Amino acid sequence: MHALIDNRPAPACPAPFNVAQYVLSAGFATPDKIALQVLSVTRAERWSFAALTAAVRGVGTGLLALGLTPGDRVLLRLDNTVDFPLAFLGALAAGLVPVPTSSQLTTPEITGMAGQISPALIIAAPGVALPDHPAPVTDAAQLKTWRNLPPCDWHLGDPNRLGYLIFTSGTSGRPRAVMHAHRAVWARRMMWDDWYGLTSGDRLLHAGAFNWTYTLGTGLLDPWAKGATALIPASGTDPAQLPLLLKRFDATIFAAAPGIYRQLLKSPLPPMPRLRHGLSAGEKLPAATREAWHTSTGIPVFEALGMSEVSTYVSQGPNRPSTPDGSGHPQTGRCIAVLGPDNTPVARGEAGEMAVSADDPGLFLGYWGQDAETRARFSGAWFKTGDTVLMAPDGAIRFLGRDDDMMNAGGYRVSPMEVEASFDGCAGITECAAVELPVRAGVSVVALFYVAGTPAPTEDALAAHAQAKLARYKQPRLFVAMDSLPKSANNKLNRTSLRQTWKG
Question: Which of 156, 175, 204 finishes a domain?
Fold first, then answer.
């Protein structure tokens, strides 16, 4: 039997359509219900659906008053405050294209991204690095004044038009701006039953940063589209406080990257009587972590496989079967296959590259300004994910690894070439290579192998250089000096040899 499952059709996205209107429409029937709580240990900032909708449309009016026109890009340099969803949805409501970015990014990093997309406006929180770019900057104080402006009209149009951009690391070392259509948010409905088990009565707490695709969709957009409540820890919250927040604010679903689950298991966990289950994505959840969490809390964790270009498409869930190793099944409405070297489906039980149908309603429109790289990801009727998997006879998908050299740092995909490029010109280094290395069961870090010059750099000097050039999640945690880096016969760097050397 071939490794191909076709669960189509998916419900068609209505037209005309607008992401912001759709996401907030479930709350129109319950305007006084709490849509968002930004949590700290001592208090919570509460927003009803009515207040959230009014502020979003007011922000849309403020943006248009600056002279922006539909299609203009708006670069968001915001952290985990209510400003982020107001700016994101306000831009979409007005027909603009928001571009969320991590508040951890340095000036050189965000300058490169801004150069790609040519934003018409930058909205920034205090203290967040700004790009070297001529676009005007609106600060959080100005954004706040727009909340009370008259509501903008919903900018309705073709569901396939560009809605927003999300940056992800590219294999070339140059970050890629993933173009998502408005319809992508509608397609997320396929996750509600087959991963979340989401209901309008849920209170979903997500532990990630807003700019991450996982947090943005699972933590904000999906709960609101269902009429549920989103719980978000305030910026700067210590992860060790999450169990207390889960208990105190009656969370029913908890979403996080595997690293958060591992971190929370280091200390005794309090009873969390309202919590039904956890969700995990971003990287593979180790079986030991899953089992330890269930043993400690009695609460299951359901895992999903996905990527920025299409979000999750294979998942476990409370309403569908799962296996001890964490394998999931293709979601209802998806068509997926496991491809061999000839780009045709392999037999079940045989490893190959995961592929998603090119007409999947949640699939991206392409990479902004990178047509050749976009075309390279497609083969006929398939979008090739770059993940190596195996499909069991019953259709369960088991993740085996990535077929490229991309690294995974705390759930973020990081290009080794981007890390290496940041060390160009670093005093004391003549050559370097970044790889992902396992340091203990279920835990991997970014490592930098390097050939030292004279004088050789200290580890503290290398760490300081990384801190100045890279966001924290991209910074190497290990620095390994070598006499020379391994190369192939055609003088290409052999990263596999580095990983094998480390394991040895």
Answer: 156
